[in-house]
Known about the structure:
By secondary structure, this protein is of the alpha/beta class. It folds into two domains: 41-114, no CATH class; 122-253, Rossmann fold, CATH 3.40.50. It is built from eleven helices and eleven strands. The protein has helices at residues 4-13, 18-28, 48-52, 65-76, 89-98, 136-148, 165-169, 171-175, 190-195, 218-225, 240-257; strands spanning 36-38, 43-45, 58-59, 81-85, 102-105, 110-114, 125-130, 152-156, 179-184, 202-206, 232-234. Residues 124-256 form the PurE domain. This is Nickel pincer cofactor biosynthesis protein LarB. InterPro entries: P2CMN_synthase_LarB, PurE_dom. One of its GO terms (biological process) is 'de novo' IMP biosynthetic process.
Amino acid sequence: MMDLEKILKLVQTGDLDVEEAKQQIIKDGIGAGPGNLDLGFAQLDIEREKRTGFPEVIFGEGKTPEQLEVIFRRLMEHTDRVLATRIDAAKAAHVVATVGGITYHETARALTWFKRPMLRVHDGYIAVVCAGTSDLPVAEEAALTAECLGSHVERVFDVGVAGIHRLFRRLDLIRGANAIVIVAGMEGALASVVGGLVSKPIVAVPTSVGYGANLAGIAPLLSMLNACSPGISVVNIDNGFGAGYYAGLINKNMSKRT
Length: 258
């Protein structure tokens, strides 16, 4: 890939004619605007890491395996890590087979690539607390996202309120975290319970797991939004990525202070 200055110099010296230069500019997306890479079917924000501290994340639903392959290859040219969420096994198999160095995280339904080994660059840790085994895909999406942001994650799984004694055995670990992600379906009560026991910020994630009146996650969403316990923020239904990202930012900024 060439930058615009290099292309213009080649045109000036006669080593590249105008039509070739035009095609190169289109190919590399140079004319797509500042920090934007035009792929035709997608506009990649290649300067997002400079603005926000983390590269653009690929949302896999609705994209073809071939589109995912191209997006991965182009992002890999501009960053040292790529995360793609909501990737089913068939799409993952194609991308892993065609692009080197990619790992598929089956439970989290995510793909990752790192130029260098993933490091824990921030002090402290995040606790991802999951109510039930059925909530694991969303919880793992949150945990993996926070890890990609450089945070250590402690997983505390299957500690829902139906067997609340399981939660109390892990309470010291949860209280030691800089941020806590609570993932729960059914009625979503776990966020309120933990919120009344800790002094750390909580990011609550309602899941679509539950029987009919769970309403595909609306019931726990409303429970979490109406939680009596203070210090709870709520993301959208099944949005493990959003919760992990938010918790990662909290831990990153806590690490800066200490």
